[in-house]
Amino acid sequence: MVMLDEEGLGSRLIAPQDNPGSWSRDGGEPAAEPLSSHLDRRRPARLASEASDAERGADPPAEVVARLLSAKAPRYTSYPTAVQFTADIGPDRHHRWLGAVPAGHPVSLYVHVPFCRRLCWYCGCSMKVSRRPEPIAQYAEDLEREIALVANALGRRPRVGALHFGGGSPDSLPVERLDRLFTVLRRAFALEPEAEIAAELDPSFVTRDWIFEATRQGLNRASVGVQTLAEPVQRAIHRPLAFERLTDVVASLRGAGIGAINMDLMYGLPHQRTADVLDTLERVLPLAPDRLAVFGYAHVPALRRHQTIFAPDSLPGAEARLEQAALAAERLQAAGYQRIGLDHFALPTDDLARAHASGAMRRNFQGYTTDQADTLIGLGVSAISRLPEGFAQNTADLAAWRAALIEDRLPTARGVAFRPDDRLRGELIERLMCDGSANLSALLVRFSPSPEVRDELSRATDLLERAGLVSVAEGRLVITEMGAPFVRSICAAFDVDFDPDSGRHSRAI
């Protein structure tokens, strides 16, 4: 499941909302927003004015937690987050940024396929319902135009170590179009022999033919969108899925030779009880997925109008969501899965578990990843690229995306250039999100920020420590057991742009 902060309106908006627990190499959690009365300001820079309050002591832990349970914060799949993207970054600048990618610099690819056969009412994706093959075939043809434009801007055929298909439903691409798309991609990019090629699949519709063709093209990891197996909840969210159908899809994936299978589950859905979450786990565990992501439903009706179909009283409250996440995590760990970051669980033999154990795990728009490339090239409507100079996002309007390509222009609509201290803040936030700790002293030495930034980060750290959310020793920040469920809020304290009143973030628990 590709993840993006709600404000990004990009490939996936479904929230990872998170699981409580202690931070360790096998731990992971949820989050929330401002931090307490001391940290519920729009910018960490304003934390300085709160120092006098902190001098009088942090709020009691119970009061801090009570506020955090109902709070909101970004998911930090990027920094700066997508809410900072503006139209100042357009096709010309995006073209220059692509041309400036250093020779020999490894890149990763993301291909967005927005089409689905139905609208799932919980969905926050950039997607379009289509039951006819013609619009999908046209989209695939237009993707080929975009690939050619990007390749021309790059000026060479870069090495690619990871290729991810997201949506929407990538399995909506006809088999013959899939074959042609891979041919065009390989012409423009040098896919490494050991590249991870992954795709998100809708188990209700993916076919054996599609699975076997994708495998023939190199697909070696599949992410299966289960969400829930509780029939009343399935009816509520308009996403039926029979367990027998799911088992057939998993058998087809394994029969085709795909050795790495992920499953996406959700909690906090309308009418979903804790028993429903646990029953779904009991049914999927015998299928032995290598990884599971347990995301919290992101209710953002202001951004996704179809979510207004859910009555507010049908949604589990903050404490119920916390219980669902906590008991799901407990059950998965009892089954031998290691807890990874906010919301992921992996068998010890999985690459993500090994990357987490070694401190090499990363975070990007696909969530937690083993991908070490700093450059990600996004292709397709709403896709986001991360380049050495900043982020560039394609338009989310399908007609505008196609019109730009017909005119031989990159379909870039917005983005953001990195400011001097963004890389420092980004790496600090990424390490906290991935490891639950960060060596702030080492980052300050490496990035040499201004005295003002140093002072701001120091004050934010001090307030977090006084609130009992982090401990600090020899320049290393470690998220405490109390702070573990609220890692996103902790990260927000270091986000100079964070505005808790923007209305663009979902509830974090």
Give the topology, please.
Blueprint: H1 51-55, H2 61-69, H3 91-99, E1 107-113, E2 115-116, E3 128-129, H4 133-154, E4 159-167, H5 175-188, E5 190-201, H6 208-216, E6 221-227, H7 231-237, H8 243-255, E7 260-267, H9 274-284, E8 291-296, H10 318-334, E9 338-340, E10 344-346, H11 351-358, E11 362-364, E12 367-369, E13 375-379, E14 384-387, E15 390-394, H12 398-406, E16 412-417, H13 422-435, E17 437-439, H14 440-447, H15 451-466, E18 470-473, E19 476-479, H16 487-492
Helix pairs in contact: 4-5, 9-10, 13-14
3D architecture notes:
- With 509 residues, this protein is of the alpha/beta class.
- The chain is 35% helix and 19% strand.
- The protein has 16 helices and 19 strands.
- The strands form five sheets. Strands 9-10-8-7-6-5-4-1-13 form a nine-stranded mixed sheet, sandwiched between helices. A three-stranded antiparallel sheet has the order 14-15-16, with helices on one face. Strands 17-19-18 form a three-stranded antiparallel sheet.
- The longest helix has 22 residues.
- The radius of gyration is 22 Å and the shape is globular.
- The relative contact order is 0.22.
Brief description of this entry?
35% of the residues lie in helices and 19% in strands. By secondary structure, it is an alpha/beta fold.
